[in-house]
Amino acid sequence: MKAFTNEQGAVLPLDRANVDTDQIIPKQYLKSLRRTGFGANLFDAWRFLDEGDIGVTPNERQLNHEFVLNEPRYQGARFLLARDNFGCGSSREHAVWALQEFGFCCVIAPSFADIFLSNCFKNGLLPIVLKTETIDELFLLAQEEQALELSVDLPAQTLCLTGGRTFEFAIDANRKRTLVEGLDDIGMTLAHAAAIEAFETGHRRAMPWLFDKGRALEEK
Amino acid sequence: MTGKTLYDKVWDAHVVGEREDGQTILYIDQHLLHEVTSPQAFAGLEQAGRKPWRIDANLATPDHNVPTQGRELGIAGIADEVAREQVIALDSNCRRYGITQFDILDPRQGIVHVVGPEQGATLPGMTIVCGDSHTSTHGAFAALAQGIGTSDVEHVLTTQTLVQTKAANFSVQVEGRLQPGVGAKDLVLAMIGMIGTAGATGHTIEYRGETIGELSMEGRMTLCNMAIEGGARAGMVAVDDKTLEYVAGRPFAPSGEQWQMAETYWRGLVCDPGAEFDQSVSLAADALVPQVTWGTSPEMVTGIDGAVPNPASTADPLAAEAIAYALEYMGLRPDQPMTEIQLDRVFIGSCTNSRIEDLRSAAAIVKGRKIAKSLKQALVVPGSGLVKAQAEREGLAEIFLAAGFEWRAAGCSMCLAMNPDRLLPGEHCASTSNRNFEGRQGYGGRTHLVSPAMAAAAAVNGHFVDVRELL
Ligand code: SF4
Predict the structure, then answer these.
(1) Do A192 and B16 touch (CB under 8 A)?
(2) Cα separation of A94 and A26, whole Å?
(3) Nearest residue on chain B to A186, judged by CA atoms?
(4) What are the boundaries of each domain within chain A?
(5) Which class would CATH give A6-183?
(6) Of A17, A31, A200, the CB nearest to B86
(7) Quick one: which of A205, B66, B374, B449 could link to B411 by a disulfide (CB 3.0–4.6 Å)?
(8) Complex ipTM over 0.90
(9) Which residues are CB-contacts of B457 (< 8 A; sequence separation ≥ 6)?
(10) pLDDT tens digits for range A62-115
């Protein structure tokens, strides 16, 4: 995974609570065998006025000019400002891939859904949790004529408004380290292969039925 | 020391150790796979030059993409080329690594969360994961079952473990007797309405109390299935006689001496008397009426005797805005009685409600009746090939067909409309699935979540009615 330290860019305010992963990336795009190619269909049903499908390019579609993602001032935004329970619903990691591919490096919200949060950390998309009052304030700033610019310093755990205030944010120290150092998640666990094997041996002894089930199937 | 919750017990029995980043390495007993969230994981494994850790801990079946008609054609019957490629990819990945798969032509194929318990691949006390958020279903067996993303699918394939931080404990206590016509689906919808879709975020729910003990295993699966809709990654129910009866004799379940050994252990999978929960709510079953969702989130729910809310009489401006937005999408008017919502389609299926008991309860309502002429379609999609066969043996298929329902082959179908079964823009559907998100059942579609009995009653009337009037 690519290391995450400092990033900066404009903020796109998505003023809606409980944004689910079905909205972030609709199901018709999940038929892919790859981890890429989802950015063009991020928030598809909100971004376009017509139904899309795999293989239909955005310029064949009708843009919804009212949707915030299509507003000229937010083009190229790197921070997604969201409301409570962002990323709820389906476990599809495609939601994170789509957000990243579209250009977002960070989602800021008062709260996130569990599986989405864990998928963010696996891919190096930084989820920042801030108090609702702070989020409210940021929404007001981000909705002004001039797009709001932010920079994030993950090692220092700060978010700075360009030419303005600085907000500190909390993040689990271990998850932070994984991001900052861009650690390979599976590699880190495999470093404990001996411990896993030892556990497995004991587990098999204590609960042999968990290991003999394949054979049971053949017999029947 | 105070006692342990059920979650504490299953968690503790699977802790391998701690990683240097402070997260717990949790051993995984059972990994379920389907075609949509696994291809990138297999590709990642291969790219890294790694191998699956323990083949026999994996079980796969295609479900999300498969068509529910023309099944005898197998893969060739999948008209959508990209969907077909995913099913082929699952086939070849399973063959390549020797993973047991119930493929598209196998009579045991079905929705992965129906297949696991049905095969006894889901056992009490197990840790179970699957690249699907409704993996929580398996918690009905006192298993710790969680949905994971594709990176974690690869992680579990490679290391047989999941790395995470322990969640908090959330108690949902239900006492009293459910009225006839009211069931587990109504209970869980009411719970979500009460705690909200983020109410149990960061927690594992344990469903407890007299009412839960009275529920069948199917009912408990419905409850646990929708724990994720309340924000909890997992929901669990303690082991009792019903659990053991359900598991006994299933293909992957232990037998003989191993059963004795397992039973002794499983009997202990209950919450200790002194155990403490971080959060708790309680519900009274007696007063519960059948539930129907009116909005675009499962928490937007009310009783069949209720009405669509009115944003104008909602105090909180943010909530009022959310209601107004949902009503616009749903094409409903404020204060509209739930019984006045006209329907275009009815869908009985999904991992929430496609088991034999669900089909029986719907068939009992449908029997001797016809679906309303105003309906464009009423679908029954059994959860697995085996459920389908059993329903046919019991004469349920005939009842549905005689009433005007379509009787289909097993799969996720219109629950998420990745296959050809879907709503058209603006259509209202009474659905026994679990998510009423915008477009979930088809672009522009409007989903109302209900129990199988309520869906059957709605099919007969063309609009929602209180199923208790039809009993
Ligand atoms: S039936 Fe619906 S919710 Fe269940 S696994 Fe399939 S798509 Fe997901």
Answers:
(1) yes
(2) 9
(3) B155
(4) 6-183
(5) alpha beta
(6) A31
(7) B66
(8) yes
(9) B365, B464, B465, B466, B467, B469, B470
(10) 999 999 999 999 999 999 999 999 999 999 999 999 999 999 999 999 999 999
